[in-house]
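Entry 0007
Protein: Putative permease transmembrane protein
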Amino acid sequence: MTAETSPANGERISLLRVLGPGHVWALGVGIVLVGEYMGWNFAVGKGGAIAALIACWFAGLLYTCVAMIDSEVTSTVAAAGGQYAQAKHIVGPLMAFNVGLYLVFAYTMLEAANAITLGHLVQIVGVMAGFEDASDKPFIVLTIMFLAWLNYRGVYTTLTFSLVITAFAFVFICVLFFAVQPWSDAYIKHDQLLTGLPYGWLGVLAALHFGMWFYLGIEGTTQAAEEVRSPARALPLDTMTGIVTLLIASTMTWYICSGLMPWEYLGQSVTPLFDAARLTNSTLLMVLLFIGTIFSALASANCCINDASRAWFSMGRDRYLPQVFGAVHPKYRTPYRAIAFLVPVALVFAYFAPLDRVITFSILSGLLEYTFMAFNVILFRRKWPLGSIKRSYVHPFHPWPAVMLLVLCSATYFAVFLGYGTQLIAMMVFYIVASLWFAVHRYKYVRRGEQFAMPWPRPVGY
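Output (structure tokens):
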């Protein structure tokens, strides 16, 4: 009996194909939109408001390359685990193991950051209501536990919940944008508040670190590959629609916040959009943006649990990790053991680690994954040229998006090193040690012949 076998009748069970295009959009945008509500503004503190805008569009270009590359490869390798499944089929076991870890930690750390933000917001409300001793810790724990339970109960309900609250959070940004009347100077004071580049072009480079927060996680649409009804159509369409949605939302967010707040304050705000709403002196806008911040953080944490558990589940199913994690719940058809195992990991980081460190951990893991994607698509095109296998989407201008992605990732590594060099080195050491553990101990359990489910011809040169 395998980890995917029902003990009741001996039949193999698997994840359900129940998701539609809206769910895929919600998975991609829902995991990221919280970046418009918090986190991106630390780029302002690194180099000023103009530097943050440059970082926003620079990162937008990076993620457009990610979205195009992901759309081609994932619509062809439609399996849970996303980039992990791609690495397994295209590169090899050691790379697949590492990519799986990048995914799990990128999403789990993002989940922890969202829980920290939610706890902070509830604490602010408690203080405003007169509860001076209100603590954020209980709400951090309750948020992670509730969302883990929701994921445990079924993917359709989980992502329908994310779809609804993500749509509301996006609409609230649009409402605030038009409420501040960008066509007039009634609220927006860019002529008074924009101060150029206070730290020069080095500040622009440093701002790239948090500019990624506008888009980090859009590649999570790939994790739905095994549960969406029409992956060949839905994954490319909704990944590209998602990146367009985020480009619009991020530009509106920067415009609002940089026109209402001095960059010195904006660069350290925990909830910049909510603070912008407060500056309008509109109670309705304050309420809407407070709700939007809550909704965006909930949607992101919810999608993070979904994505991290699928990557962990896929690694267990292929025996890259203990096979117990490859189990599917016989009733809810979810990777319930993977979901439960990652809960305490998220709780530890959310409870004890500072927000900027957690964000950096997520960003660095994501950067490592994007670096792999650039090499991955080049190998994919080389081993299986156009026409050799069926592709539902072919990204244009190959190999330039991959080359551009490598250049942008290199610049962002340097930006992270400027502010968090020690953490960058520590994380690289961690992943090297994990690779050694896999090569020396775990690889002997992997059955490579059982992993390859794609009906492809032999790659060119083999």
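Curator remark: The two ends are 34 Å apart (CA to CA). Residues 29-450 form a domain with the Amino acid/polyamine transporter I fold (CATH 1.20.1740.10).
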